[in-house]
Design goal:
Elements: E1 7-10, E2 17-18, H1 20-33, H2 41-45, H3 52-62, H4 69-83, E3 89-90, H5 94-103, E4 107-111, H6 119-125, E5 134-136, H7 149-158, E6 165-169, H8 172-181, E7 185-188, E8 205-207
Parallel strand pairs: 1-4, 1-6, 4-5, 6-7, 7-8
Antiparallel strand pairs: 2-3
Helix pairs in contact: 1-4, 3-4
Bound molecules: 2-phosphoglycolic acid and magnesium ion.
């Protein structure tokens, strides 16, 4: 069995790992510390995908706070770290599929907007750190998704032409970054809810289960 792409770049939150409840708890601990009301997880999910700074900005704005995200960023990072491994879960089929891709000689990397220092410990806790030859976080470079450069950086690191790298993600941010990088994209439908219409985007495929990746032709 062969796989049509020599390299695959994966988004992390909402694609490989369901970290929603942990991120939501970190946001709520920050809000509580500021004397602001907790927010339901479902609402917070719509704010994830563009990095921690944007997440805090959305939370503060939603709460009607005039505080700037910079003012609470360091405190949020303390909560983020404390909540990182509360209850993260791999989506169904992730390990088997990563192993099947590795067996087919596919090279893999992670491109996430999550703060970079939290990425290796999360991948290790999930037992999937050994599959990736490269990891770029939201603050690893001067750019983050939807800028294409984090993806192009990983393609260069893997020494695979961008057009032959497949990007797999759950958000508009992933889609836009891949498009701008000239990479084909597969979107997963189980990621974090948002207004982006996955099916209308023009992805190579929209998959409901991670394991469907292996059937791509
Ligand atoms: O932490 C975020 O903002 C999103 O992370 P992701 O890019 O892995 O979805
Ligand atoms: Mg994501």
């Amino acid at each position: 069995m062969t796989f049509p792409f020599p390299a695959v770049l994966f988004d992390l939150d909402g694609t490989l790992v369901d970290s929603a409840s942990d991120i939501a708890e970190a946001v709520n601990r920050m809000l509580a510390e500021l004397g602001l009301p907790r927010v339901p997880e479902a609402r917070i999910l719509g704010w994830i995908g563009e990095g921690a700074h944007q997440l805090i900005t959305s939370a503060l704005r939603d709460a009607g706070s005039t505080l700037d995200a910079d003012a609470v960023y360091a405190r949020f990072m303390v909560h983020y770290e404390a909540c990182l491994l509360l209850d993260p879960r791999l989506y169904d089929g992730v390990v088997d599929t990563l192993q099947a891709l590795r067996d087919r000689g596919v090279r893999m990397a992670v491109c996430t907007n999550k703060p970079s220092r939290f990425v290796p410990p999360l991948l290790a806790a999930m037992g999937i750190d050994g599959y990736f030859e490269g990891v770029v976080g939201g603050d690893s470079l001067a750019w983050r998704k939807p800028d294409p450069r984090p993806l192009l950086h990983l393609a260069a690191q893997l020494d695979v032409e961008p057009a032959r790298c497949l990007m797999v993600g759950d958000s508009e941010t992933d889609f836009a970054a891949a498009r701008a990088a000239g990479m084909p994209v597969v979107l997963v439908s189980y990621g974090y809810p948002r207004s982006f219409d996955l099916h209308a985007a023009g992805a190579l495929a929209v998959i409901d289960r991670f394991g469907e990746l292996i059937g791509l032709e």
